[in-house]
Amino acid sequence: MKLVEILKKNYFLLVSTFFFIYIAFNFLDGERGLFSYLEKKELYNQKIQKKSNLTAELNDIEKKIFLLTENIDLDYLEILYREKFFYGKPNEKVYLNR
């Protein structure tokens, strides 16, 4: 009987404590919790970085395609020829960047 009396006296305290624990647990954990938010934020930043890299690569490829269309750019063809076949003129020094 003493336990029941103690529970009746501290009913509000017990309910408040369990409610606070429930709110704190759901705030930190779960699908919409703080930890999940931080993981999703990091994933979002990675996707933004990947998007910017792909956009830069796409612009580079579009530039190369533009140089190879109707009006043939002889300078660009020479650059491609030199890169692919390591070609140089007789008195020219060729340096490879890796």
Describe this structure in a few short sentences.
By secondary structure, the chain is mainly alpha-helical.
Q: Percent of residues in beta strands?
A: under 5%
Taking pLDDT < 50 over at least 5 consecutive residues as the criterion, the unreliable ranges are none
Report the principal-axis shape: rod-shaped
Distance, first to last CA:
83 Å
Counting H and I runs of at least 4 residues, what is the number of helices?
Answer: 4
Description:
The chain is 73% helix and 0% strand. With 98 residues, the protein is mainly α. It folds into two domains: 1-30; 37-88. The longest helix has 34 residues, at 34-67. It is rod-shaped.
Task: Summarize this structure as a short list of keywords or feature phrases.
73% helix; rod-shaped; 4 helices; single chain; mainly alpha; 98 residues
